[in-house]
Amino acid sequence: MKKLKVIELFAGVGGFRLGLEQTGAYEIVWSNQWEPSTKTQHASMVYEARFGAKNHSNTSIEDVLTDQIPDADILVGGFPCQDYSVATTLQNSKGLLGKKGVLWWSIHRILSEKKHPPKYLFLENVDRLLKSPAAQRGRDFAVMLQSLDDLGYAVEWRVINAADYGMPQRRRRVFLLGYHKTSGVYNGLQDSDPKEWLGASGTVASAFPVGALIELQKTFTLGQDLVRLSEQFNIGEKLSPFQNTGICINGQVFTAKTHAQFDGKRTLLGDVLAHGQVPPEFYITPEDLEKWAYLKGAKKEVRTAKSGFSYNYSEGRMQFPDALDKPSRTIITGEGGKSPSRFKHVVQTSKGLRRLIPLELERLNMFPDHHTYLAGISDAKRAFFMGNALVVGVVERLGKSLCEKIIKNP
Questions:
Q1: CA within 13 Å, CB half, 45
Q2: According to the 3-state scheme, what is the secondary structure of the chain?
Q3: What is the pLDDT of residues 1-33, one digit of tens each?
Q4: Structural domains in the chain plus CATH codes
Q5: Which of 163, 200, 210 is nearest to 393 (CA)?
């Protein structure tokens, strides 16, 4: 089989590309990475250094014309979690226009304007997507599903915690696979029992098995009018109707709660530690230790806001130092830098307490060693990249499973 051609959006430092290329079944034919809040495009610099500048775009995707993007079999990307409300009436020619700066609508625009749209989608986001916004739980996801349904795509999703399947980091993300109605996989899904697809035979379940028990099953139909859906979906309800697993096909949603099933080898935080030379600035100095301990500790105290208002503040204790015999906590974008923090990782070594070095953060996301190392890129920026990245092993396994499904359903 020829390699599947891929468009990679919101590419970061190339996590999607690494995972897909490791399967041997995919070829990235065009990529885009743009960081709106910074003048120097550090992530794009790393991407070009690792994969070359050919067919790579470092321009805001909102400014890239659809005809500048080549046709491909699959569109992938970890798009930003934003407010996906539909801001206009349905009188304009496109049917809808989302707010400028909301990058979901850039994906939608590319799919809607392509004469030959990609047959498959592979997207990633934070699991909060399934229940945002707070005032209308699940609305953003409902708008996404309905807009993809309008464009002819069925969608399968699952919230996957990488550590549940033996990977070194507890990182929960929602992964979405889209199948265009002209694809064989769409037909395979349409002919399947939803519970069987989600619990055993589907693309995600084949890569990441779940226990036979599927709880909180729910079936419902999305509204056809995106504006009305945006304004009225789930109003007055406290919980999102979307569980951690589901499919949407022909406007019909089937969703349920599943539990990971895995009895293989587990990778722990201690397994990724580098035992070579660690720069001295990563070690916690005796004078900073008290501040670290305070930030990591439990608190019950009265605090005063800038307005002068006093309030009771409390939070639980964080493990300090981090446990080496468990998968690591989630890396966040603020992981870098010397300043004491509640959320940065700290490990106990024979030479003392220290923060994690960029190499170890790369390993927690299953990137190659030194992937983000480049002249002019600080350690803090490298940590920021990994806080934004995904776990490459999850992409690789889903990519392999998708390829197998395509071969079985030509």
A1: 15
A2: CCCEEEEEECCCCCHHHHHHHCCCCEEEEEEECCCCCCCCCHHHHHHHHHHCCCCEECCCHHHCCHHHCCCCCEEEEECCCCCCCECCCCCCCCCCCECCCCCHHHHHHHHHHCCCCCCEEEEEEEHHHHHCCCCCCCHHHHHHHHHHHHCCEEEEEEEEEHHHHCCCECCEEEEEEEEECCCHHHHHHHCCCHHHHHHHHCHHHHHCCECCCCEEEEEEECCCCHHHHHHHCCCCCCCCCCCCEEEEECCEEEEEECCECCCCCCCCHHHHCCCCCCCHHHECCHHHHHHHHHHHCCEEEEEECCCCCEEEEEECCCCCCCCCCCCECCCCHHHCCCCCCCCCCEEEECCEEEECCHHHHHHHCCCCCCCCCCCCCCHHHHHHHHHHCCCHHHHHHHHHHHHHHHHHCC
A3: 799 999 999 999 999 999 999 999 999 999 999
A4: 4-263+391-408 (3.40.50.150), 269-372 (no CATH)
A5: 163
- 10, 359, 389: which is closest to 173 by C-alpha? 389
Q: What positions carry a catalytic annotation? A: 81
Task: Provide the whole-model pTM.
Answer: 0.94
Could you give the angle at the alpha carbon of 389 between the alpha carbons of 386 and 392, nearest 5°? 110
Quick: pLDDT tens for 60-111: 999 999 999 999 999 999 987 766 555 544 344 343 445 555 788 889 999 9
